[in-house]
Write a structure and sequence with these properties.
Layout lengths: L4 H14 L4 E6 L6 H11 L3 E3 L7 H15 L3 E6 L7 H17 L8 E5 L5 H12 L4 E5 L9 H9 L3 E5 L7 E3 L2 H8 L1
Parallel strand pairs: 1-2, 1-3, 4-5, 5-6
Antiparallel strand pairs: 6-7
Helix pairs in contact: 1-2, 3-4, 5-6
Length: 192
């Protein structure tokens, strides 16, 4: 079972679409079996276009093609799905750096968000994940998933305090509308 990255992308795309934005999704997780198909399901649910290539294609080339398409269509928001990365997979971290170089080169003046999706049930391992990602990426926010179960997500307090990275969204269910903007007061009350 995954930690909710692809699902979160679909939910965020849906939320932005409901705000009247045009959305394009880049399926740059080309390594995981069925990742593109899973993302395609969520893109359809959110009524968003998607750019994809064959399995094992160069993820940075998918992002490049998506940027080109987004520019041509004057798309408001481009969401890039990258492979789920573990902090001990150096080649995947290198790929993330390559994708970021493509984005910076092709969209130097665009507003950019780098969101790290963290499963609320992960516990202390999430701290190591954030440290590893910070070495290769300027993380601008966190998405905390699976808060609909027994997990309280308390580890996020340490992550936010230590790294000064805000939580942007929380996933509270499996439906497309089950993504909320993070509210620190509500979160604190739920933990206590």
């Amino acid at each position: 079972m995954g930690f909710g990255k692809t699902t979160s992308i679909g939910k965020i795309a849906n939320r932005l679409k409901q705000e009247g934005k045009s959305i394009l999704i880049a399926a740059a997780d080309t390594f995981r079996a069925a990742a593109v198909e899973q993302l395609e399901v969520w893109a359809k649910r959110a009524d968003c276009e998607m750019i994809k290539k064959e399995e094992n294609a160069d993820p940075a080339s998918v992002v490049y093609d998506a940027i080109k398409a987004a520019k041509e269509k004057n798309t408001d928001v481009l969401i890039c799905d990258t492979a789920g990365r573990l902090h001990n997979k150096k080649y995947l971290m290198d790929e993330l750096e390559k994708i970021q170089r493509v984005i910076e080169r092709e969209l130097p003046d665009a507003d950019k968000e780098v969101l790290l999706v963290i499963d609320a049930t992960t516990g202390q391992n999430a701290i190591e994940q954030v440290k590893a990602f910070k070495e290769v990426s300027n993380i601008t926010g966190l998405v905390l998933t699976k808060l609909d179960g027994t997990a309280k997500g308390g580890v996020v307090i340490g992550i936010v305090n230590e790294n000064k990275i805000p939580v942007k969204f929380i996933g509270v269910g499996e439906q497309i509308d089950d993504m909320e903007i993070f509210n620190s007061e509500d979160f604190t009350k739920a933990i206590i």
